[in-house]
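Troubleshooting log. The previous structure file for this entry was overwritten by mistake, so regenerating from the original sequence record. Sequence copied from the archived sheet and checked twice against the printout by T.R.
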Amino acid sequence: MATARGNALASEVAAGGEALLIIDMISCWDFPDAGKLRPGALAIAPAIAAFKKRCGRAGVPTIYANDNLGRWRSDWKALVESSIACGGDAATVTTLLLPGPEDYFVLKPKHSAFHATPLTLLLHHLRVRKIYVAGVSSDQCVMTTVAEARMRDLEVAVPRDLVATQSSARNEAVLLQYERTHGLNTAAAPRIRLAAGKSRSGRLR
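Regenerated output below.
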C-alpha cells in the first residue's frame, strides 16, 4: 500500500482502490444457531486465508468487521484472544485468519459492517472504491453490508468460495440473488483478477 498524504485517518492508500472485508469470522461460535453456521465458516476459512495472502502481496488491505456481541468493553485484540482460548473450531478459524499488524479491524454492534462503525471513514481515507466481501453469514451480515456498500456507490464482489451461511442451499440462493438482482461478481476467488495485482509487465497476480 502506498503512503497517503496530508492529515488522513489512515497512513496508507489501498493499491488499486481495492480492499478485502472479512465479516464475523473471529468468534467463539457461542451464539444461537452457531452450530449451524460454524461448519460453513470452517470450510471457507482456508480459501479466505489464501485470498487474503494474495491481496497482501498486491498491496490490497484487509479489514476485519466483527460483532462485539454486546461486549461493549471489548476490543479486537480481546476478541482474537478469546476466540483462540475457546479452542476447537473457533481457534482453528482464528489461527487461519489471524489479523496481522498491517490489517484493520472494526467492531460492529449490528448486522451491517457500516452501521455505527468507522468503516465508511476508513474506506474513504484508504481511497477504496471496490471491496471484496468474505465471511458469514452470506444471507444476513454479508448481505446487509453489501447493500449498504452499494448505497455508498462502492463496487462490490462476493467471491462464492469465501462466504457461507447455515446451509449450502441458502448460500447458493443468496449468491444467485447477488448475481441476478444486484449484478455482482461472485466468481470464485482464484478467478478474481485484482486490479492492484498488475505487475510492470502487465501480468496479473
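The two ends are 15 Å apart (CA to CA). Archived copy saved in two places this time.
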